[in-house]
Write a structure and sequence with these properties.
Layout (H helix, E strand, L loop, with lengths): L3 E10 L7 E9 L1 E2 L6 E3 L27 E7 L4 E5 L7 E6 L9 E2 L3 E8 L2
Antiparallel strand pairs: 1-2, 2-9, 3-8, 4-7, 5-9, 6-7
Amino acid sequence: MANGITFQVLKYEPSIGAPDDVLLKAVMTGDYATAQGGTVINLNPSAFADPNGVGVLGEPLNPPVTPPSIESCQLANGVYAELTPGTTLVNSTITLWDSEGSEFGNAAYPVGTLVVKLPLR
């Protein structure tokens, strides 16, 4: 099984008119590895899976003025996530932390829901 985090489009905000943001559900597979500065993620819209069939709007090539952020984090055992914007949309990172404030150990990604907000402007 491949390790990593990919994204599925959940919805656009606002839902009417030209959206300002897209909310993305993280799909985590495999194992999280510590001491790598987090898992490198690809936030380029062309990489998103879109199970809702609404299509990916906007193709920002560089990070927008407002950086991406964690919108919601509900992971098992109090694990929380930190998103560090990269220099481009393809090299941001997500680091996982346990409830005691230490980096999450070398183990399978925790179950739960992680939602990222990506500004489109």
